[in-house]
Amino acid sequence: MLTDGIIISGGEGVGVVTRPGLAVTPGKPAINPVPESMIGNSMRDAFKLFKGAEVIISVADGAELAKKT
Prior knowledge:
Layout: E1 2-3, E2 6-10, H1 33-46, E3 53-57, H2 62-66
């Protein structure tokens, strides 16, 4: 997602939405809109002097955890 120079993307261990019906569009990282918005707002507040930032959300052992869900 890109908002006001803030890029939030999924890294290792973050799944990609494959079917319609969720709040996230298929093909996008499975990061829910409310936490994504909160992260973006926090980044904007913390880095007001910068023109942008990139946040990569990752999950340690995400592939293994996914097998259990």
